[in-house]
Task: inverse folding
């Protein structure tokens, strides 16, 4: 649709509205920023006063180690896995005995493949992966060994409390991991190559016969390797059909509840259909908004066939006249010119033009058929499509739902966005640019929408789907439609795959823009094809909507990772008065960290660069997008006779938003797995101690070490992940990101790099916090509470001084951007999760956090707000572990000072919700700032909670680099899995 | 046969305003005393009202060359002049409504006969729970907006949607006005004329949000003046009947900027006293084929 993408002329026209919008937004921001400034002041004050806090990184390792010990199965923070390792993890996870796990491995590979290659390339049969699997198993063993070493060593070190030892250990581990990493990488490559080789010469091929119902009503059958991916079959079918513009199409299969699901090309068929028969139907998945832009007639022909089905089945409603007109074009395409002799009265009855077709209609069809004399079949098809595409339900994929009041409605997903119908009436519409986030949780489906012109806040609108699967299907369809129609390329460039580890589903095919480009390159003579009579069409009719997506795809994913729920509590406390402790700390933790941290910085930087480049390239896409949509815009504008000088203004829902969106759109797909079914709850308390000036160094190096640690952890965590394999995801989230924000972020980054003054630094922080605030306006992730992190920071005002640099460097990150970066950084963060060797373990279980969500009724005309406080009734396992620095008791504990100020900030990123509570107190003449962060990490098996936790901790530290973590409480809640779901 | 031609099917906006026929109805004397009105105001000058109406019909007939079916007035139906409310015609299909005001339901009968004589596919709204006034139906050429007002309910809108299946039908809640078209109308193929009151602007916002299409808007100072009649007559091009400058001078100035349109100012002072606006007094039909 055109409304979203404003060509420049339209932009001008809309300038009025634009201005209005902008004006509206500003006050909002200002208030926010004021708020933030407050908090930031606090922070920056602290920053000035305190020596930059030292090696948080060093702290982390013991903590994680300890955790590991404690959880024995490595479920804890110990699992901070660097994303790239995480990927590998899927290889190394394998346990020979477990079939399912093998699948996991393959799954992981599949995923990687889909990320790196175009679908067609993925197409070859996977061959047997056994060899690969074996290799990865070896790898896994290696990892295990390493891990053992680590845990042993850590066990030793921790009680000893000796810095030197710890240092050694860490160094050792570091080296090991370095090796491991390199090896791992190599191995991965090998694995892949092997795989490819194997494809060519498979040792044993188990084949399955597979049937596909084609659009002309014929059946195509072929033998497929049992482990073939969807793409293989799809390509075979397209090959059979001689179809090149295939991205608009897909394969459907029916699940047990007779729902149609899209076969995911990037995944194994078998894993998707499970015990279902290998029966598929070939269908249009994405209806081209302008079929005339298709390159080949054959593509249009298949689209016609689909539409004839849609119309005859009633899925695509038409008026009597349109039925007749479309029918007449069908006749012209299939029979040619009307021939009174050949086309007797009966010929027409064999065709089905409408769900119920009267004699009158048939007469009308014939009457119209006569008028089409001379049209070639291709022309007739084109006319057919030109008329069909204007139907209001063209390409709209309907899903049954209820609004928040329980009223039956339909949600229609289409190229332009989401339409809400009550009976046959459209009661609301959300264009893609208006939607900030799409998520589902259990059987609820949520969209978070931009504030309307006169509204201040984003709102989240919830819908109730018949069941969890339906919600997920809808969510997936939305994700795919958005990607296909709104993006120039699928959300993720292959290189960046680890950026969004938490997100497991996204559209993996080509976008419309890409497929159009590809179509332009088609260079073959128009292929001959036979138009079979649509008389047969009636056979495969049914009223099911086309866009149904496959849940099992998601389920597949869920197998690959654990979806623990957890609460991470950060307690970062800068303990001032305890000089002794401070000193101790420095010795203990500071020294080991230095070396690795330097590397870390580099690491981080390169990552940042990568991210930046990704953003840039996305920007490029959006430019393309503009041009892509220009044509359609022009189309919509047709018929406007009003001259420019006419005081008419363009209408558009919210031009400002749409404009900015269209040119800046990027996406982040995040899928959160719900613990409702599998739950692991973690609570980690991290104690940070203010280290003073050492920090610069410390900060620099942290990440590396952590990565290594997490590597080990990753393997240890595999157990838990496999155990949760069977869980089904209950939560999904999809968040289109907006270029604007990112631009700002980038700027900030750049500025920050050369930032010298404190002021600047402060500003940066404020900015980033602003963004945070913005994001937090509406909490979408309602009940998906999993990991809470509290950061308590106690600080001596005097001690605060040189923290700025760090603040600048690290504070610059915006949560939104971090959504993308998140996984990257997480690695580094582990180091922050540092726990004193002598930390005491306290058990304090956090109750699962249940947030409230504002849900507004879907009807635009009458918005009501209701709140869902649906407390999940699930059985949960709760584990709480608290790590505290020894000083904590003394410093943080008892003496109540004079409260200077208290402030609570809430921010939300993709998978985490952070509540920051800052209290300033004066204790005995010394001012102390204590920051308590509660980070709720939400997700199901797909999200890596350890990473998220690590990320959260890192973020916390980045925001307050001058402070130290004094306590981390990880509260992990796992809901008992219902194995049945899969 | 249908005049759909190649692009005739669903929703080509260029056909908006195309018409060959119009149905109008004479005003009964009972209008002055008994026509429904939202607010009691000055009395209707019947003679003047009649003159204005004759002028209106004269324009359609004489100036624009439409075939005008003039239904006789019915004294028992004081509002019968407002034919728009009893039928919604789109392409070859006519939906006979069930007006929200019970006193007006019988107005449909005469209209039915007239439309039958034009050989349209006729759909009747028989559902006892449905009400719909044509004044609440805005057809943009691409889609319908139906005002949910005191006169039109959800069920009525649903039936309209069922009748015109090719088009999206979106509902818009109407506050503070009799009808949706009390403050807006189409002034061109992609141009919505809209009043300036808050209620009008709010309704427009809703329509914008609901639509996949992007319309131009023509904002006029007076809500009542935003109700104009756009026609696309072969040989005449864009024709716009709008309220006279004597009535709404500021709004008329806005219309006068539409350089592409043949502008025909029409006074409607008397009928407006009983909530009658320009669109209310006619139903347009496009029959390209011979009758």
Result:
């Amino acid at each position: 649709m055109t409304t979203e993408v404003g060509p420049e002329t339209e932009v001008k026209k809309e300038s009025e509205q634009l201005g209005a919008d902008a004006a509206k937004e500003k006050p909002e921001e200002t208030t926010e920023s004021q708020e933030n400034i407050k908090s930031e002041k606090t922070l920056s004050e602290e920053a000035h006063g305190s020596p930059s806090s030292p090696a948080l990184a060093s702290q982390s390792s013991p903590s994680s180690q300890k955790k590991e010990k404690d959880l024995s199965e490595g479920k804890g923070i110990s699992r901070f896995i660097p994303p790239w390792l995480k990927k590998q993890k899927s290889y190394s996870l394998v346990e020979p005995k477990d079939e399912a796990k093998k699948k996991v491995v393959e799954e992981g590979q599949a995923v990687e493949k889909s990320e790196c290659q175009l679908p067609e390339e993925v197409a070859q049969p996977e061959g047997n992966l056994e060899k690969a699997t074996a290799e990865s198993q070896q790898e896994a063993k290696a990892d295990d060994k390493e891990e053992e070493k680590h845990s042993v060593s850590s066990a030793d070190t921790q009680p000893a409390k000796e810095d030197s030892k710890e240092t050694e250990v860490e160094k050792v581990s570091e080296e090991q991991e370095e090796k491991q990493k390199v090896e791992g990488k190599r191995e991965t490559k090998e694995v892949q190559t092997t795989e490819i080789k194997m494809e060519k010469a498979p040792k044993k091929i188990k084949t399955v016969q597979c049937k596909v119902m084609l659009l002309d009503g014929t059946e195509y059958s072929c033998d497929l390797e049992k482990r073939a991916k969807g793409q293989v079959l799809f390509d075979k079918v397209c090959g059979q059909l001689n179809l090149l513009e295939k991205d608009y199409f897909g394969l459907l299969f029916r699940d047990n509840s007779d729902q149609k699901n899209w076969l995911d090309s990037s995944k194994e068929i078998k894993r998707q259909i499970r015990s279902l028969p290998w029966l598929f139907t070939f269908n249009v998945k994405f209806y081209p908004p302008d079929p005339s832009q298709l390159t080949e007639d054959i593509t249009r022909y298949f689209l016609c066939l689909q539409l004839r089905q849609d119309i005859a089945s009633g899925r695509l409603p038409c008026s009597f006249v349109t039925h007749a007109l479309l029918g007449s074009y069908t006749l012209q395409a299939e029979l040619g010119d009307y021939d009174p002799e050949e086309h007797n009265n009966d010929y027409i009855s064999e065709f089905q033009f409408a769900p119920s077709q009267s004699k009158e209609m048939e007469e009308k069809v014939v009457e119209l058929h006569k008028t089409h004399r001379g049209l070639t079949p291709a022309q007739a098809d084109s006319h057919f499509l030109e008329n069909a595409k204007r139907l209001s339900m063209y390409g709209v994929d309907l899903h049954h739902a209820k609004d928040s009041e329980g009223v039956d409605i339909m949600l229609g997903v289409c190229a332009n966005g989401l339409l809400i119908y009550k009976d046959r009436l459209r009661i609301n519409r959300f264009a893609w640019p208006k939607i900030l986030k799409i998520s589902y949780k259990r059987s609820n489906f949520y969209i978070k929408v931009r504030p309307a012109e006169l509204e201040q806040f984003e709102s989240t609108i919830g819908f109730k789907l018949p069941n969890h699967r339906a919600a997920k299907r809808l969510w997936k369809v939305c994700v795919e439609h958005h990607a296909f129609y709104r993006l120039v390329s699928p959300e993720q460039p292959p290189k960046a795959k680890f950026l969004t580890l938490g997100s497991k589903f996204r559209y993996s095919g080509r976008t419309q823009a890409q497929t159009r480009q590809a179509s332009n390159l088609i260079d073959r003579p128009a292929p001959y094809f036979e138009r079979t009579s649509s008389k047969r069409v009636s056979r495969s009719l049914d009223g099911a909507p086309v866009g149904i997506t496959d849940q099992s795809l998601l389920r597949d994913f869920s197998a690959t990772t654990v979806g623990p729920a957890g609460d991470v509590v950060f307690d970062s406390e800068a303990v001032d008065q305890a000089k002794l402790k401070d000193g101790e700390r420095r010795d203990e933790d500071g020294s080991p960290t230095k070396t690795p941290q330097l590397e870390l910085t580099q690491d981080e930087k390169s990552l940042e660069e990568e991210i930046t480049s990704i953003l840039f390239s996305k920007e490029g896409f959006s430019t393309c997008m503009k041009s892509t949509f220009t044509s359609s815009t022009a189309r919509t504008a047709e018929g406007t006779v009003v001259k420019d000088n006419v005081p008419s203004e363009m209408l558009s829902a919210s031009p400002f938003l749409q404009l900015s969106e269209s040119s800046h759109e990027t996406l982040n797909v995040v899928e959160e797995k719900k613990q409702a079914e599998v739950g692991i709850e973690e609570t980690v308390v991290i104690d940070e101690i203010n280290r003073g000036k050492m920090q610069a160094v410390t900060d620099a190096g942290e990440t590396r070490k952590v990565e290594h640690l997490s590597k080990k952890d990753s393997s240890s965590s595999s157990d838990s992940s496999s155990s949760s394999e069977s869980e089904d995801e209950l939560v999904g989230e999809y968040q289109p990101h907006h270029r604007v924000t990112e631009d700002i972020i980038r700027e900030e980054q750049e500025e920050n790099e050369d930032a010298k003054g404190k002021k600047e630094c402060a500003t940066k922080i404020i900015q980033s916090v602003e963004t945070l605030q913005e994001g937090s306006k509406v909490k979408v992730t309602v009940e998906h509470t999993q990991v809470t992190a509290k950061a308590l920071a106690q600080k001596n005002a005097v001690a605060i001084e040189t923290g700025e640099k760090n603040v600048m460097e690290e504070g610059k990150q915006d949560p939104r951007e971090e959504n993308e970066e998140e996984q990257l950084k997480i690695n580094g963060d582990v180091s922050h999760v540092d726990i004193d060797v002598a930390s005491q373990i306290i058990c304090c279980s956090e109750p699962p956090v249940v947030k409230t969500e504002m849900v507004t009724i879907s009807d635009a005309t009458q918005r009501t707000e209701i709140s869902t406080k649906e407390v999940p009734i699930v059985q949960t396992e709760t584990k709480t572990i608290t790590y505290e620095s020894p000083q904590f008791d003394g410093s943080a504990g008892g003496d109540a000072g004079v409260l200077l100020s208290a402030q609570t900030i809430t921010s939300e990123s993709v998978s985490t919700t952070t509540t920051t509570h800052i209290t300033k107190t004066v204790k005995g003449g010394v001012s102390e700032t204590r920051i308590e962060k509660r980070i709720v990490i939400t997700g199901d098996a797909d999200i890596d909670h350890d990473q998220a936790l690590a990320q959260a901790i890192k973020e916390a530290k980045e925001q307050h680099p001058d402070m130290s973590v004094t306590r981390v409480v990880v509260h992990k809640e796992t809901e008992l899995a219902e194995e049945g779901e899969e | 046969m249908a005049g759909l031609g190649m692009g005739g099917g669903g929703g080509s906006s260029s056909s908006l305003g195309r018409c060959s026929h119009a149905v109008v109805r004479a005003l009964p004397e009972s209008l002055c005393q008994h026509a429904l009105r939202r607010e009691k105001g000055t009395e209707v000058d019947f003679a003047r009202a009649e003159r204005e109406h004759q002028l209106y019909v004269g324009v359609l007939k004489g100036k624009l060359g439409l075939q005008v079916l003039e239904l006789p007035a019915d004294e028992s139906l004081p509002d019968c002049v407002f034919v728009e409310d009893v039928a919604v015609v789109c392409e070859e299909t006519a939906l006979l409504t069930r007006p929200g005001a019970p006193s007006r339901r019988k107005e449909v009968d005469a209209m039915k006969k007239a439309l039958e004589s034009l050989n349209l596919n006729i759909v009747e709204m028989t559902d006892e729970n449905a009400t719909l006034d044509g004044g609440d139906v805005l057809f943009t050429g691409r889609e319908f907006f139906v005002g949910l007002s005191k006169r039109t309910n959800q069920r009525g809108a649903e039936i309209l949607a069922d009748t015109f299946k090719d088009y999206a039908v979106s509902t818009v809640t109407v506050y503070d006005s009799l009808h949706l078209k009390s403050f807006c109308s189409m002034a061109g193929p992609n141009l919505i004329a809209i009043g300036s009151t808050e209620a009008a602007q709010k309704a427009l916002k809703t329509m914008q949000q609901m639509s996949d299409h992007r319309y131009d808007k023509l904002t006029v100072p007076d809500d009542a003046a935003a109700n104009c009649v756009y026609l696309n007559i072969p040989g005449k091009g864009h024709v716009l009947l709008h309220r006279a400058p004597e009535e709404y001078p500021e709004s008329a100035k806005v219309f006068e900027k539409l350089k592409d349109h043949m502008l025909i100012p029409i006074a409607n002072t008397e009928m407006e006293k009983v909530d009658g606006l320009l669109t209310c007094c006619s139903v347009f039909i496009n029959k390209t084929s011979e009758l």
Q: What stands out?
A: DSSP finds 26 helices and 26 strands in chain A. Residues 112 and 823 of chain A are 16 Å apart (CA to CA). Residues 579-637 of chain A form the longest helix (59 residues). The two ends of chain A are 38 Å apart (CA to CA).
